[in-house]
Amino acid sequence: MYSLILTFPFLGFCIASGFGRFLGSKGAGIITTSCLIATTFLCYLVFYEVGLCGSPCFVRIAPWFESELFDASWGFLFDSLTAVMLIVITSVSSLVHLYSLSYMEADNHLPRFMSYLSLFTFCMIMLVTGDNFVQIFFGWEGVGLASYLLINFWFTRLKANKSAIQAMLMNRVGDVGLALGIFSLFALYKTTNLQTIFACASISSSSSESISFFGVECDALTLICCLLFIGAVGKSAQLGLHTWLPMAMEGPSPVSALIHAATMVTAGVFLIARCSPLFEYSPNALCVVSFVGAMTAFFAATTGVVQNDLKRVVAYSTCSQLGYMIFACGLSHYSVGVFHLMNHACFKALLFLSAGSVIHALSDEQDMRKMGGLVRLLPFTYSMMLIGSLALIGFPFLTGFYSKDVILEVAYSKYSITGNFAYWLGITSAFCTAYYSFRLIFMTFFGKTNSYKSNLSHVHEAPIAMALPLIVLSIASIFVGYTCKDMMIGIGTDFWGTALYILPENIYYVESEYIPQSVKMIPFVFSGIGAFISYYLNIFEFRSGFGSIFGFGNFWIGSNLPNEFISIQNIQNIYLKLYTFLNQRWLFDKVYNDWIGMKSLKFGYEVSFQSMDKGILELFGPTGLMYFIPVCAERIRNLQSGYIYHYTFTVFIFLTLSVVYLSSDQLSYLNNSYIDIRLYALLFIVLLYFNPVLNRYIVAKH
């Protein structure tokens, strides 16, 4: 059963990619969707056996790398954390597969699209089930490749090309940090197996081992945790490496729901939770995690307030919610962070698929300023998006309420600098979340329509294949949080077992009487204020200069606004600059382009073109280096005869010379020689490659 969980998605990928042209769009879609539904059913069985019954399972399939102490095998670890992640991945993926059958039915390349979805699901399952860091890194890179293919699915679009490249490069920066972290783990523990490393973490902490990093002695665990967190920053789009996430909205809407809502972007949160035995012994790394997560939540929430692209608003919402998960893990509440991850997957996938339904109905229109008045034309889609938005803002008794408010409560009860910092930024983010969530609802579905009549003439509600996943996700967005809260979080739960580890000194219980009721009401009050301001500026007939400057509603100033306020030109300029600053995403892209991208291009131009091409190469002229290089290339090309025994002879010769070269210092009979044996080896190499007589002799004799 455990092996079939990985077999079915990979089988669907192979069939759709290899035989999609023969099966057709419907055939490839049905096969891949059936494989994912079967995988989802098996994952629920694993959740019952491993999660509910508390029976972790370790499966070793085959050896992979075996070289002295380095031993990385194909093995799978199924514990409660893996079971929860499998439920999230396969459930959302199967619904996205079903949704895509109708959403992408007009695309001639549907088999290729479905194969990419299955490949992504397979790689994500490999990531969360690996029992060693090498296999986790394999799945980590696999989802990066699949995301590049999916974002760039419509490769004829220039923006899709650029977005896919940006996503790949940003993730490569984080992957370098993850790879260095894995190298450091092997250097410290001489293994990459998770259980062995976690068992040795306490010893490393007590012995205060250090690692030299770029010539600086650093605490081993702190350095390793920070390097692992860099990988999580890239994959989960945290502050600094976040710019790829909103740009990735150029892919189809099912891609956004699968990758950027429920699965790939949560890989960083999963990595931190999986490595909790390491992070717990590194308090400095936990502080870094908390600060970065809180700043990401605040940054993304404030940026989403002024975005006008429908999917980009939801994308920044994803980035903000990932910040909540990250700083919850930084406060040593890994169970709360993973619980919010699971809840967030439900309502965020619902929001993305509902946004896709709106875009599909409006003939690929994504600008909310060109929408409005769709509530009568798309009542079902409006209902689904309203449920998702209410769950997102943490409306009482919906799924988001049982995890988002708990994160803020544990941050308040931490009584530390990191806790207070995360709490107040989280509260501010909750206000912004409520504002842009209702702004999305009001601008899309209410008010007078700003769309052309030609766009509204073909508006249609979602067909059954698109509506069924929305219904399932809406039910999950209402009930999942309530049904799972007592099982996954709170005092006395043993659901997680040994999957999540917290040091005794980091365990603090949050009693209901411990936090004042007024503090508990702050998130709800802030959310209500944000919703009211959104209604006031986007629906109410009163249009202020403040609202017009920030792009809300019609661009006119109501007569009820005091003339004294309108005449203050400086205040309006401040509002305009603030709007520009937030709309330009805090100018991160400009800084990266001006100080990194352009500097790198200028360096490459000056060094390669100016110095090498026009400097060194042209210095020799046509009779110098420019003549010597083609001649050498021609001589080397002549050696490629195509016969295996020629290549075998060459390998034998160079192997012999290498052995002689390395052992020349130990050859006592050559100690008195004036010419080192290495000179003879070098002379022979030159003759072998550049003497045509010797070349012809070797070819003729051998």
Topology:
Layout: H1 2-52, E1 57-67, E2 70-78, H2 80-103, H3 110-129, H4 133-151, H5 158-189, H6 194-207, E3 210-213, E4 216-219, H7 220-235, H8 244-247, H9 253-262, H10 267-274, H11 276-279, H12 283-304, H13 310-330, H14 334-361, H15 379-392, H16 401-412, H17 417-445, H18 453-456, H19 464-488, H20 517-538, H21 545-549, H22 563-566, H23 569-583, H24 588-620, H25 625-638, H26 644-662, H27 677-690, H28 692-701
Antiparallel strand pairs: 1-2, 3-4
Helix pairs in contact: 1-2, 1-3, 2-3, 2-9, 2-14, 2-19, 3-4, 4-5, 5-7, 7-10, 7-12, 9-14, 10-13, 10-14, 12-13, 12-17, 13-14, 13-17, 14-15, 14-16, 14-19, 15-17, 15-19, 16-17, 17-20, 26-27
Description of the structure:
- This protein is mainly alpha-helical and 702 residues long.
- Among the domains are: 282-540, no CATH class; 541-583, no CATH class; 586-619; 621-701, no CATH class.
- It is 70% helix and 4% strand.
- The chain has helices spanning 2-52, 80-103, 110-129, 133-151, 158-189, 194-207, 220-235, 244-247, 253-262, 267-274, 276-279, 283-304, 310-330, 334-361, 379-392, 401-412, 417-445, 453-456, 464-488, 517-538, 545-549, 563-566, 569-583, 588-620, 625-638, 644-662, 677-690, 692-701; strands spanning 57-67, 70-78, 210-213, 216-219.
- The strands form 2 sheets. The chain has a two-stranded antiparallel ribbon.
- Strand 3 and strand 4 (216-219) form a beta hairpin.
- The radius of gyration is 30 Å and the shape is globular.
- The two termini are 55 Å apart.
